[in-house]
Amino acid sequence: MAAAYYNSAMTLMDDKPYDARRARLRRNIIVGILIAIPFIAAFTWYFWNWPEEHRINRFFAAIEAQNYTQAYGLWNSDPDWRQHPDRYKPYDFKQFEADWGPTSDYGIIHSHQILVSRQYGSGVVIGVGINGQGRKSPIFLWVERSTKTIGFSPFELRF
Fold first, then answer.
1. Cβ atoms within 10 A of the Cβ of 100, count?
2. d(CA 81, CA 87)
3. Does the pLDDT of residue 37 top 80, yes or no?
4. The pLDDT value given to residue 95
5. Residue range 34-59: average pLDDT?
6. Model-level pTM?
7. Which of 31, 104, 117, 119 has CA 20 to 30 A from 45's CA?
């Protein structure tokens, strides 16, 4: 029984000949993966908050177009908010329009720029410069990741 085992065992001389093409291909695949990992990581890190930033850009585009009903729908993440306004009594449309309309502290909003965004807990804090104010007096908004609702941030960011 042992003799059959030794006879069927493969020795170093019985191994397949070295295939340089296959070795080069394997090396190139490994090097490609090692080079791609940092690029993928950097891309992911840079665009991690993109959906929330995009949401803020859409919100301010509606404000700049003075389409406050659409902006309020984006704020609550509910385009059909007029069908059930009772859900939003704590921050109703009248208060929203006072905060974001032409008579607000900001006046008529005609431009915005996202200055900073950081993830905290279940959401993202986004600092936005309004009407060219830039770093002087940004407003900080909160976007909840799961529901995409917008609100005023409970804290400000340093940048």
1. 21
2. 8
3. yes
4. 94
5. 94
6. 0.76
7. 31
